[in-house]
Request: fold
Amino acid sequence: MSTRFQRTADKSLNQKHAKILKTCLDRPENKYCADCKKKDPRWASWNLGIFVCITCSGTHRSMGTHISRVKSVDLDTWTPEQVENMVLWGNSKANLYWEAKLENRRPPESNMDNWIRRKYEMKSWVKSREIPDPKTLDEQSSGELVRLFINLNCFF
Reply:
């Protein structure tokens, strides 16, 4: 495959991924940071399947890639597997798992770093020690996003 053709293919795939991520961010549950609840997150922990603000993304990065793998929604290149995980999870489903035993769903305004670490490192409020298949977490399907993947021939 020629280098020029490869660059065109890569650019096309990146555009498809950007469109899918934008669609994910347009969903009501993803319009706010999964942790601090601030509006318009532009970062994501792709292995956790959550969208976060720039401040919370710093805490996620500091926990290490064995816990959270952070990328910019706008600036980074995404693999099909990473995009797929964002579609399958999203903030609502992820918080159904990570905050299952949390009584007050409002995070503290001070010391978010500690709160995020309790949530993901210590797993203080998880539903179970084993991370479930996101399809089992709620009744609402991510069907329209899955169809978008198929229509764009990204993967599956």
